[in-house]
Structures are given as structure tokens and as C-alpha cells.
Amino acid sequence: MRLATLLRSGSAVWAALLLIGGLLFFSTGNTGGGIEYWESVTAQSTGLLGVISAVCGAGAAWEATRLKRGAVSTWAPSRGPLRIAAEQLAPMALLGLAGVLISLAIFSDAALLDIPGRPNLTVLAVGYSVVLSHIALGFLLGGVLPRLLGPPLMLILGYFWGFWPAALAEPAWLRHLNGQGIGECCRLDQVPAPRSLGATALFSATVITVALILIAARQGKARLVLPMAVAVTGVAASIAVAFPLGLDGEHNRDQSLLRCSGSGSGSAPQVCLWPEQYEHEDDFVRWSKEAGDKLRKAGLTPVERVEFSWRVPDRETVLIVTATSLLPSGPPACALEPGETYPGSEAASALDAWLAQVVGVEPAASSGSDEAAQLAQKVRAMPAEAQKAWFQRNLRSVLDCSQKPELSPSSYTRAARAGS
């Protein structure tokens, strides 16, 4: 049958209208928050797979219902069941592909055209496999369920399978089977995890294979043996691939792409940038050097190397990140033990604010709470040696759960006076 005839007589037109409406609705307020980085944009576009899969699955179920009502299976067998299914589902497959590409376009930005790289084709292909699995399942269910039950069931099933697993903390591996495991990827130093993509592709391939076997098989109990074996094996393999990931759907990016340059005169910190940041290298280096100079003036030694997680720099953020790189990126291991108290959390906020002010960032723009910024201002009014002592003392409480912080500036002022 000609494609034009299929489009005119089938469900593709109403499904397209439903798909466009769904994509516009679910994308509202969920775009524009990602990094201008192709891996990030492509991964986040998978957040709309639930809409695309649900609509295409419902359309496929409708096509199967139409064939069932027309008793096509009782006609003279000039075409096999798989060929009939392929012809009837071609418009849905094209609509699903269009949906994947439209989703990418929704999350893309004009600035990406000037950025190195391209959309991650593997992510797009895996996302499309999710759509195809819903189309195959929808066609299967539409052919066996009572009249008109298949399309609404696939809408509901596709919606919940597309969005529900990502809302669960446990089991974490479940989100990697429906394509949502990479939905929050990626920072500039990350790419989508191959295991997550592999688990999704394997699960989708299992659903498609089982559906094709059942569509092509003749009636009889024996026809259930092979699809059940394929289903059990495929699902078990998918879970085995996804299980080690937990909630993490990211993978470290190739470090050879990271280009590092000194901040001048051989002094630290060394600034390391990803290809998307290369065009702004001068700004990153200049402001990082400015922060390093101010830290040394305060008696502190900057870190040897600093990286930044956004593409376009601004002075205040570069200053803050360079300065606060002196602090650990998270609480120590002892703070993560069950029932363990971490007195250093208050100190970490105060040290963040103080370091930001040391490099010249105004208290209102520095990180941390208002209380931390006000405390940092009081510390900045102390003599340089007293400030350094305050920093070193409270840094120990950040690194060691057994060390209680001593944040009061008056303690260090009295000690400085006693020493003099």
C-alpha cells in the first residue's frame, strides 16, 4: 500500500496532532536549563520520550484494531503478518522518528551551532528504539485486546513507563530500562553512560523481538515457548547491565579533550578547559589568575589546577570557583556514616563566603547564607594573620568530623593580642 494512502486512511494525522500538543505541553518550563553542550542537550531531550512513545504506541494499537475489525487475517494470505504490520506501522515509525528529532530541537539553542561537536547519535538511536518498542507492543496488544481498549491502554502504559521510573529512588536500575537514566546528564566533564544506553537498547530490542515473534507465530501453545524464553533472557540481561549504575547515568568524558594552560609566570592555578570553553580561554585564565593572586596575598596557596562546569565565564563566578577550590567538594566520608554528626557543615558555609570575599566578591553575591556572609565580613575586619588562623582552624572541622568549628572572630582577635 502506498505511504500516501496509509497516511490518509490511518491514524498518523490525529496521532501527530496529539504528539505535537504533548511535546509542547511537557516541554514548557523544562528547557533552557541545560549546559550549551551537545551531549547535555541530546541527553536531556530524552525526557520527552514518554510522550512520543505513548502516542506512537497508541497509534500502533489503533492500526491493529482496524486490521482486526476488517478481519484481514482471514483473507487470502498474499502477504505475511509481519509484512502487513510493517506497512501499517510505517507512518507511526516515521512519526516517532520525527518526535525524537523535534524533541532534540526543542532542547537545542541557536548558540549550539557555533559549538564544537554534534548531537549524540547513539543517544538518539537508543531513544528511537524505545519508541519502536512501544509501537511493536501497541500493535501486538491492539490485535489481541477487546475493541478500542488497546489505544487508551498504550497511552496510559506509555506515559507511566516513560515518566514513573525516573521518579523512584528504588529500584534505581529501573530508569535505565526505559531511556530515562541519562535524562539529567551531562556536565561538561561527562557523557552518557554506555551501560545505561546499552540497558535501554537491550530492553527495547527484547520487547520488539518478542512482539515480532508473537505477531508472526501461528496459533498454538508452542508459540509461547520461544517468546517467553526471549523475554526472560532479555529482561534479565538488561537488568544485569543496568544494576551497577544506581542513579548514575553519566560517564567520565575523555580526558584527552581537556586542555590546560598556566595562569602566567608559572604560578598556580592551572586552568583546564573543555573544547566548548576554548573560545573563552583568555577570560577564564585572566580571572582565575586574579583570584590566585588575591589568595596568595591573604597567605593562602591556590590549588594547582581548576576546572569550570559552564561554557561562558563571568568574572564573579570564576573568582568564587577558583577561591573555593581550596575546600573539599563534599563532606568527608565520616559524615556519610549512619548516625554520624557533622559539625563542619556550618564552617563550610562560612569558609565559602570568606574565600569569596577574599578574592573581591561582594558579600551579597558570595555563596552561602546571609548569616555566613555577615560572619565572613566580620572575619575580614580582623588582621591578616588572625584571618588565616581562623581559616586553617575551621578547615580542620570541615575535613574531620571529630573537630568542632570555632567560628567566633573574637577568639582569634584575643589570641592575636595575647601573642603580641
Automatic annotation (TrEMBL):
Q: Which UniProt keywords apply?
A: Membrane, Transmembrane, Transmembrane helix
The record's section on InterPro entries has: DUF7224 (IPR055648)
Q: Which residues form the DUF7224 domain?
A: 271-401
Annotated membrane-spanning segments are 12-29, 41-62, 89-108, 120-141, 148-167, 197-217, 224-247
Q: Which Pfam families match?
A: DUF7224
Q: What is this protein called?
A: DUF7224 domain-containing protein
* Organism this protein belongs to: Streptomyces inusitatus
Q: What is the lineage of its organism?
A: Bacteria, Bacillati, Actinomycetota, Actinomycetes, Kitasatosporales
